[in-house]
Write a structure and sequence with these properties.
It is a single chain. This protein is α/β, with parallel strands linked by helices. It is 44% helix and 13% strand. It contains 18 helices and twelve strands. It has helices at residues 31-45, 57-61, 66-71, 77-85, 91-104, 106-120, 133-143, 179-187, 215-221, 242-249, 263-271, 287-293, 303-311, 329-337, 350-359, 361-369, 375-393, 397-402; strands spanning 19-25, 50-56, 124-127, 149-152, 172-176, 195-197, 231-234, 255-258, 278-281, 296-299, 316-319, 342-344. Helix 1 (31-45) crosses helix 17 and helix 6 crosses helix 7. It is globular and about 65 Å long.
Length: 403
């Protein structure tokens, strides 16, 4: 069972002065905001007396919302709509184009971010976003001498170059949720004192603080009677039209289909005929509960969804092919290397995959149970240690004012 999160006072030396900690996120895909919220909650559970502020990166870079005025949408909407439609082919090339544009705009980005840091005066800046970490790190160094900059990776591995790990940012601390990410940070030239290993991705307290559950009764109430294995289908907060094909192929398999904010997809799924019990979910904050009612997971190999599924004891079935986004490809390797579930070349082979997984479900469940993700407990301790070290080396003016 996942470890329960219990608030506990932190060492007095780490909390000698009240600190302002700024968590930087954006809404591309939804996982970065979810990670920021999870980390905010983990800090509170750790008993750290910090003021935590969540900062949307694009609101700092575009405070007058000119992009929305010109296009009628937020900068992340283009990416999110592609995810919802399953249009992921070519994203590797587009990623390099985006990174080129970010490098070309580096001075402008640093100037705008530095102005924000000077006004906000945080004591610790934590990034939960990729691609912008050089600009974030350089702007913190330019505006707030001595204030540490930390990148908490929300992927199990980096997608170099210039995705999560930025060796050119001398002061970047990098929090790595897998041995693969640690090895990548070392190979990139990050100093050992700036690499911080954790046991996985930071998950919401809802995946640790699990209330009592009468699983059989709740499954029966939803129409999932008996012991037939139930699959949970999830493609992130925006859903994906790939779920329609999955539902058609698995008409005889009991399924919980989580559509996130994709109301059109939910409606289309409810209209599909099925010969087995089926539950279609709109956006819900009760996803951990529904995962506890399922027996296995079907989705893309995104680090967040995979980590949540494994935390809830669900062996995953994912695909890896040319449609897989570059930052998610290691997720499939992680599943395969740990014997956690199955990696298929395409969802067209899903009926065979479901049959194979169900035939060996006890073995896969045992492999999943061997995973112990304590990152929600570990990352606040890492941040407190970085902050304490920075204060010992020399207190910025904001700390002196707070003392």
């Amino acid at each position: 069972m996942p470890e329960r999160m219990v608030p506990a006072p932190f060492a007095a030396s780490a909390a000698a002065r009240p600190a302002v900690v700024e968590l930087v996120y954006f809404n591309a895909g939804g996982g970065h905001r979810a990670s920021a919220l999870a980390l905010e909650a983990a800090i509170a559970h750790a008993g750290l007396p910090w003021t935590v502020r969540l900062t949307h990166l694009f609101e700092v870079l575009d405070p007058t919302a000119r992009f929305r005025q010109w296009t009628g949408m937020e900068p992340e909407d283009i990416y999110n709509r592609r995810l919802a439609r399953g249009w992921t082919l070519g994203l590797a090339q587009e990623l390099r184009l985006l990174q080129g544009m970010i490098r070309w705009s580096h001075r402008t980005l640093v100037r705008r971010l530095a102005a924000h840091w000077q006004q906000a005066a945080p004591d610790l800046v934590v990034s939960l976003v990729p691609n912008f970490n050089r600009a974030l790190g350089d702007s913190v160094a330019a505006a707030l001498a001595g204030v540490p900059f930390v990148t908490v990776m929300t992927d199990l591995a980096d997608c170099p170059p210039h995705f999560w790990i930025e060796p050119e940012v001398a002061g970047q601390h990098i929090v790595c949720g897998s041995p693969r990410a640690v090895a990548q940070a070392r190979a990139a030239g990050c100093g050992p004192g700036r690499i911080h290993a954790t046991s996985g991705m930071v998950l919401s307290p809802a995946f640790h603080d699990l209330p009592a559950l009468d699983r059989a009764a709740e499954r029966a109430a939803l129409g999932f009677a008996g012991d037939r294995p139930v699959g949970l289908v999830l493609f992130g907060g925006e859903g994906s039209r790939a779920m329609l094909g999955i539902a058609r192929q698995l008409a005889d398999t009991p399924l919980i289909l989580a559509c996130g904010r994709n109301a059109a997809l939910a409606g289309a799924l409810r209209a599909l005929p099925a010969r087995a019990p089926r539950l279609v979910l709109d956006y819900t904050r009760e996803l951990p509960r529904y995962m506890r009612l399922a027996d296995f997971f079907i989705g893309k190999p995104g680090s967040g969804s995979l980590s949540e599924a494994v935390q809830m004891g669900l062996p995953p079935i994912v695909t890896r092919n040319r449609w897989t986004m570059p930052q998610e490809r290691y997720g499939a390797e992680w599943v395969q290397a740990g014997g956690l579930g199955l990696v298929l070349p395409r969802f067209a082979e899903l009926p065979r995959g479901v049959q194979a997984l169900q035939a060996d479900l006890p073995r896969f469940r045992a492999a999943v149970r061997r995973q112990h993700n304590r990152a929600a407990f570990e990352v606040p301790q890492v941040l407190a240690g970085i902050l304490a070290q920075a204060r010992a080396e020399g207190a910025p003016a904001s700390w002196l004012r707070a003392a």
